[in-house]
Amino acid sequence: MHVAFSHQNFPAQFGAFGAYLASIGWRVTFFTGAVGATPPPGCQMVHMTPHRDPSQTTHRFAASMEKAMINAQAFANAAIAVRRQGATPDVVVGHSGWGSGTFAKSVWPESKFVAYAEWFYRFPPVDDTGESAAASPEDGRAHALTRNTPTLLDLAQADLAFCPTRFQADQFPVQLRDRLHILHDGVNAARIVPDRGSRRGVAGLPLPDDAEIVTYATRGMEPHRGFPEFLRAVAQLQTTRPRLHVVIGGEDRVAYGRRLPAGDSWKRRMLAELDLDLSRVHFTGLMPWSQYLAVLQSSHVHVYLTVPFVLSWSLIEAMSTGCSLVVSDTAPVREALDDGVSADMVDHTNIPELVAAIARQLDDRARALALGDAARQAVLRRYDQRWIWPARADLLERLVHG
After folding, report:
1. Where are the extended beta strands (E) located within 160-243?
2. pTM of this prediction exceeds 0.85
3. Closest CA to 135 of 119, 122, 123, 151
4. What stretch of H or E contains 46?
């Protein structure tokens, strides 16, 4: 089997799975727009180079489509060069919405095409945080429709489509949902394991031995992931818990939602709003993987907050380490966890409720540890790569060979 993955980034959703396929004897090629990316052992990497940037004069409803078509052309040019060397993959897996694999069948019409369909935009947005920039409902609906065009092009020609969660699949129109095979990317539950009480090198921080450690991890610090609400809760907790130390992993940027003016950030805004003891709030930035894992393993309470949106890998990883979890009571989270069984779910916009849930887990350690154990078991049942990857490989092989 020869499989080609196409994604603007790397390793993203495909890197680890592709490395697994190579380890069991498949030929694996990665097409990526990421500069300087290194392929896993046994894999080939092909760089996709767009020939130009999108035009500033393109109609705003067509801007995302133009960008996707430029990416699609970059993939096609790179794929044609690979084809000239005699390579025809059995199956091409493309990250939909960005044009990454849209022209796969234009280059290799005999190959199977698999769309990785991650998100479908709606209006009003299901992930609305009150920041919608739509001038009117008509404008919002029209913009959402056109933003979906690259994904719809992929689904129109796909032989198979993957979607990571039921919640994400439910955002697609009813007539398309039956085409989506729901299967999460999976986490390495054999490596991401509990190691309670080790307190080994918590991000290199000089935390006291009796510290109550609350952790939070995010790509960007924004309302989509409840960052403002989390810091407001921390400010209240600090007034009554002198041993509380908070470790925040992630970048000071907006990954999802409305961008802020240059020089502004939600971190800046919250530090200006709140009277925090910053000697007990530790911003680590991006961490090496081993350090990030040590933070999760050392956590007494891990807080994951989100509006209804794509479920973060960081939540599944925290579950895999057996973290005691306080999480948002939203649909994607309810798909992964059970309230009062494997996590405490809260309305994260209700700061007193969020504060009380964190304090309860810090005070009742036996209950908190039981929640963490149940979260770990949920990962083994639902998100463990040890069964997900063979299942996904089997689907691809059956797609090609029948």
Report:
1. 160-163, 180-182, 212-220
2. yes
3. 123
4. strand 43-47
Alpha carbon distance 99, 97 (integer Å): 6
92-103 pLDDT, tens per residue?
Answer: 999 999 999 999
Tokens encoding 127: 């992930």
Compute the distance between CA of residue 267 and CA of residue 285 in angstroms, rounded to an integer. Answer: 12
CATH number attached to the domain at 2-186+385-401: 3.40.50.2000
d(CA 320, CA 297) in angstroms, rounded, equals 10
Give the long-range contacts of residues 140-146, CB within 8 A, separation 24 or more.
Answer: 142/61, 143/60, 143/61, 145/121, 146/61, 146/62, 146/64, 146/65
Whether the CB-CB separation of 28 and 21 falls below 8 Å is answered with: yes
Domain boundaries, the chain: 2-186+385-401, 212-382
Q: What pLDDT score does 251 carry?
A: 95
Domain 212-382 falls in which CATH fold?
Answer: Rossmann fold (3.40.50)
Distance CA 82, CA 103 (A): 14
Strands (E), 131-285: 160-163, 180-182, 212-220, 244-251, 281-285
Backbone angles phi, psi at 344, to 5 degrees: -100, 120
**Segment 277-302, tens digit of pLDDT:** 999 999 999 999 999 999 999 999 99
pLDDT of residue 132: 63
Cα–Cα distance between 27 and 356 in angstroms, integer?
A: 52
